[in-house]
Amino acid sequence: MTAFAQRLGSMRKNAVGTGASVPVVLFLIAAAAFLVIGSLVSNIFAQQTVAGLAQGAIFGSLALALVLIYRATEVINFAQGEMAMATTYIAYQLTLWGLSYWLAFFLTLPIAFLLGMAVQVVLIRPVQQSIIAVVIITVGMFILIDGLVTWIWGADLKFMKAPFGNTVYHAGGVAFSRQDIGVLAVSVFSVILLWLLFQFTKVGLAMRAAALRPAAASLVGVRVNWMLAMGWGLASVLGAVAGLMTEPTQFLQPTMMQAILLYAFAAAVLGGLESPAGAVVGGLSLGVFLNLIGQYIGFATPELRLPIAFAVLLLVLLVKPTGLFGRKQVRRV
Amino acid sequence: MGMKGRLLAVLAGVAIVAGIAVTAAFGAHKSDPGISASTITIGGTFPLTGPASLYKTIPAAEKAYFDYINDHGGINGRKIDFKIVDDAYDPSKTVPLTQQLVEQDKVFAVYGSLGTAPNLAIWDYLNQKKVPHVLLATGDSYWGFSAKKYPYTIGFQPDYPGETKIYGQYINANLKGAKIGVLYQNDSYGKNYYAGLRVGLGTNKSSIVSAQPYDLSAGNVTQQILALKASGADTLVILATPTPTIQALVTSTKVGWTPANVFINNVSAVGTFIKLAAANGAKVDGAISAGAYVDASVPAETNWPGVKLAKQIVAQYAPSLDVTNSLTIYGLANAWTMAYGLKNAGKTPTRAGLMKALHNLDPKKAKNPFLFPGVKLQTGLHDNFPLEQEVLIRWGGGATGYWTPFGTLYSKIR
Amino acid sequence: MKFIPAAVAAIVVAILPFFLSGYHEGLAVYVAIYFVAILGLNILTGYTGQISIGHGGFMAIGGYTTALLSHYEHWNLILTLPASLGITFLVGILVGIPALRLSGVYLALATFGFAVSVPQLPLKFSKFLGGSNGIHADHSVTHLWLYVVSWSCAGIAFVLAWLLLRGRTGRAFRAVRDSEVAAASSGVALPIYKTLAFGVSGAFAGVAGSVLVLATNGFAQPSEFGVLVSLQILIGAAVAGLGSLWGVVVGGVFIGLLPSVSASVPLIGSSHGQDVVFGLIVILVMLLLPNGVAGLLRRFEPLVKTAIKPDR
To answer: Which residues of A touch C102 (CB under 8 A)?
Structure first.
């Protein structure tokens, strides 16, 4: 047992830490300062920043889910957004059966966890040796889930009760909706919980070990396969949170997460795919950045939002090929 | 086997196919495709899945109307067989599916196909094949303007620019000094609407203080609503598809902006959506839109024959549909027009006959019960827009409310 | 001996129009389109190991090239195909240069960004590119014309790929895939071959896009080149398996026909059956053949060889 702990302890040094370098941290501090000053100077700047943060928090949660899966299976899960969407529909169904919003919310999370695990065990594990096969299976799931949800619930817009009410607060000339604040809080809170789980629990440690050093982990008695499945489960839970937090602004529709998934891809890569903190920072900065350039730069018309997001991604990758928070790694090819 | 050999083989194939076609053409020519002694087969493409799939109500209502007609003697004794196929609003699917309808299922006419881009993609093909391409569910102006070049195509509903022209005229007459903020979708749909609004405002165009386009890929319109708020606009004109419309209504309350006047384009002004927006905190009372059809949710219209008939048909043939949904009524009104066209396309309907009937709609005879009283169904030599009148409607009653028509009928909006 | 399968395939393609209805000829055109596109992706991924989920972007550029040249310049439609080949080759090279710095998932997602960005451009530059309603070639063509042209393209593409891959270039490509370090140290100019592969691959996809536009009655519209197109090519390439030209034929048939096949599977009371069936089949095929048809062929190769040459 002590040997186990020691080994994991040495692994911890390896795995923990954001991986951000000094220039990146300085850059982020400067960006934050810019946002604060801008918000004090201009109301519309402040409003766009707040709205961008709320949207960015959702990008960040879904990006974080992608990162979890990438760490567990080394693939990008194309079905992440649709899994999030499907679990949101499950929560919706629970409210239809008479549960209150928050009861449905918290009941959906374990359901999402089990579904995520089931996906890994039934569909991913049998082919996990072939990365391409896994990716294609997630693409197949994307199409399948979309079809199933449309079949069961239909494609027309559905609504759930507003979880945070419709109150609006005013501070100076800036309006803050309780909903935006709530979305931000829930997303950040779930990220912190996840971080605590990874950092301070034995299960979290074992999961990290299974993802980073499967052979070594199984030597010290970690059940690698189950840990990987739990990774999928947790990713699915985060996806559910992202879906449920998207619902108040985008409402329920089978396509609700498709655009968000694209931004989450960009956010995850910006942050460096291996780094949970990077995913969250990537999501938040992308949300704010897109809103601000939309407001202030005439050329950046809405149809260029996606191209700009990916152009930023490409620029960052050209400078740092493993993302802002990524460590230089030598991987097996 | 080289390229040359293959080409030769294919060329030989062409010759044979051509031979067969010629023989067939000179053979006994009885009736147009899709017409048998007991049936008329028609078909159309609709988004049953994908982002635009909320419109699947329309073909469902149309089918219900045809079922009703079939149970009441059909079209001169023939029953209508209506094939609904799903193109998910993707033109690259619309094309093969329409070819399947025409070449495989041998439909008499392509009827009611939904969406501007999908219809543009099959426009040439159907006119070359001389297959009727009729009563399209899109409000673009192409269909009406191009009747000379495309004699087999005709639209149905009032066109988009015509509708916003009315809003412009209304603002000029009743909302002097309004500062207008426009939210529009960044495609031809939104831009068409926006152009019409500017025409309607005329010299008063300068009262548009901000016009914000949005892209569907953004997922929400928060950024645009904030920009409109900052522009100081007090009149919001929403020219969007349903989801962004609801988002715009809900978001503007959330960011603390309550414009004095709100206009919502007809496509998105479906009662269900407005109610949902209201339930989510949006202030919708007093919002203005326009329509050309009866509305089963308005108490004053309960006893109108069109509403009664709609209720009867929905209850009997499509109980899962909501008769108060304006898309349902739209489907019924459109299907009525098709049935009328078929009835007047000859004893044994011909494709040319159908086109002639639809290009010569006489409002004295073509009394469509699902249209708002006074709205004429009319086409003629120089007029290929079947509907060109609308009435303004105003929302009242919040989350349990409905649209009430007010003012006079606007004519010649085209 | 080696040419027998190719000859058989060519004969089948040439005589099929005698037996197919116009509609089925139309379906066969989609098979040819996806065959060419998947072949392009296979050259890139299967032979140089660079992953792309961006081939829908090349298809869009190729398709718009055809529509624009026909719409504004009234080019002969056949002549637009080499033009689109050339332009997408150049674009492929341009995409390939930054791709040199990236690998694996990062490259995959960067190319995916390319695929989702390209269809946004017609909306931005709507005056010239026609906006959401697209741009229209100045005339449209018949099923048979399309059939002949699309399968000729497929045949030419197949031969080109075969010539390219069996020679020096092919050896260099494979060396890059198997080990970049080893390839570089044995004198293969890595950057040149890697960008070249991107160019060739993009050019194939571009031609496929041109034919797709012609098959859509000459209309190039942003919604034709959505995310799903890139994913479908990826699915096709995976079904084909990497590094086998024959697998690509199966991949093309799979992606070209599956949508209409799954649409015709009756699922009670549902129009959404087609997505459900499509998704299920993709998942099942991948579970059964994780290495695609190429993997299957490799498994049977020894058997076939002994069957053909029993005396050895």
So the answer is: 317, 321
CA distance C223 to B216: 12
d(CA C50, nearest CA chain B) in Å: 28
CA B126 to chain CA centroid, Å, is 19
Tell me, rounded to whole angstroms, the distance of Cα A19 from its chain centroid.
18
Using DSSP, state whether B377 is helix, strand or coil.
strand
pLDDT (tens digit per residue) in A117-130? 999 999 999 998 88
Q: How does DSSP assign C85-147, residue by residue?
A: HHHHHHHHHHHHHHHTT--HHHHHHHHHHHHHHGGGHHHHTHHHH-GGG-EE-SS---HHHHH
Residue C141 has pLDDT above 80, yes or no: yes
Token pair for residue A79?
């079905």
Return the H-helix or E-strand segment holding B88: none
Q: CA dist A45 to B111, B193, B279, Å? A: 50, 30, 29
* Helices first, then strands: H and E counts in chain B: 13, 12
B260-304, pLDDT tens digit by residue? 999 999 988 988 889 988 988 889 999 999 999 999 999 999 999
Q: Say how far apart CA C261 and CA C249 lie, in whole Å.
A: 17
Q: Which residues on adjacent β-strands are paired with residue B46?
A: B86
pLDDT in tens, A171-199: 777 777 888 889 889 988 888 888 888 88
Whether ipTM exceeds 0.85: yes
Residue A316 near residue A323, CB atoms below 8 Å: yes
Q: What are phi and psi of C242, to 5 degrees?
A: -85, 140
Kindly state whether A169 is in contact with chain C, defined as any CB-CB distance less than 8 angstroms.
no
Is some CB atom of chain A closer than 8 A to the CB atom of C270? yes
CB-CB under 8 Å, C14 with B17: no
> Which residues from chain C sit within 8 angstroms of residue B96, using beta carbons?
23, 26-27, 30, 215, 260
Residue B408 Cα to chain centre, angstroms: 23
Residue B256: Cβ within 10 Å count: 16
Q: What is the pLDDT of residue A331?
A: 44
Maximum pairwise Cα distance, chain C: 69
**What average pLDDT score do residues B185-203 get?**
92
Q: What is the DSSP letter of B104?
A: I
Q: Could you write out the DSSP letters of every residue in B152-186? A: TEE--SPPHHHHHHHHHHHHHHH-TT--EEEEEES
CA B269 to chain centre: 13
DSSP 8-state class, residue B141: S
**pLDDT score at C16:** 81
Taking each continuous run of H as one helix and of E as one strand, the counts in chain A are 13, 2
Three-state secondary-structure class, residue A271: helix
* Residue A282 φ/ψ, nearest 5 degrees: -60, -45
CA distance B274 to B269: 7
DSSP B267: G
B16 touches chain C (CB under 8 A): yes
Q: What are phi and psi of B262, to 5 degrees?
A: -130, 130
Q: Report yes or no: A306 at the B interface, CB cutoff 8 Å.
A: yes
